[in-house]
Amino acid sequence: KAGVTQTPRYLIKTRGQQVTLSCSPISGHRSVSWYQQTPGQGLQFLFEYFSETQRNKGNFPGRFSGRQFSNSRSEMNVSTLELGDSALYLCASSLDQQTNEKLFFGSGTQLSVL
Amino acid sequence: GNSVTQMEGPVTLSEEAFLTINCTYTATGYPSLFWYVQYPGEGLQLLLKATKADDKGSNKGFEATYRKETTSFHLEKGSVQVSDSAVYFCALNPSTGGFKTIFGAGTRLFVKA
After folding, report:
1. How far is CA B67 from CA B5, B39, B52, in A?
2. Which of A50, A105, B90, B109 could form a disulfide with B43 if both were Cys (CB 3.0 to 4.6 A apart)?
3. Which residue of chain B has the CA closest to A101?
4. What count of other Cβ atoms lies within 10 Å of the Cβ of residue B3?
5. Residue B47: CB partners within 8 Å, gap ≥ 6?
6. So what's the pLDDT on residue B39?
7. Do B105 and A42 touch (CB under 8 A)?
8. With 70 as the cut, is the pLDDT of residue A40 above it?
9. Is any Cβ of chain B less than 8 angstroms from the Cβ of A56?
10. Phi first, then psi: what are they for B84, rounded to 5°?
């Protein structure tokens, strides 16, 4: 079956702009998590959605937001971009994070903010 | 709170050398523990997992044992190959609520032929 699909693969934006990233989970997976990966900080948890509800949120400013649709696809939005937002954004899906299911990751969206 | 600490890299080894990457964790209750691997240009993929104390996870020659007394989950492989060059992440999923997997900073491994 198809894996986790993230689009676009690469993005270049300028400071102050906003961006929307998309993630399509594996069919049947209802949990979608988002992570920010940077060389210095490793993987930082952004948020997790299950059945269209945000169940947990990491320590990121309100400029970072997300949502999940009824088909489990998820989007992440970053408004008023800053240089420090340059990172690889990873989406991961699972059957349900509450039951300690393993995560399946997409290849990520590489965001560069100029 | 919950956290994962793993040894800093990069780790550089010759082919067929023995590998150990240390990982310790802080968590309440009984978390599940994981090792994920990230090859260049790709997302992470699960390497192995253990869900309770004294469990040993293994896959592709890699092993890790869940040690509750030392809160550790060290990754080992007896003989590394060039193709094992990647970044390795130790991670935990708390047993009580949270709905999130917490990752260590990652350890980059270079294996020379």
Report:
1. 15, 27, 9
2. A105
3. B93
4. 12
5. B34, B35, B36, B37, B59, B60, B62, B75, B88
6. 92
7. yes
8. yes
9. yes
10. -85, -5
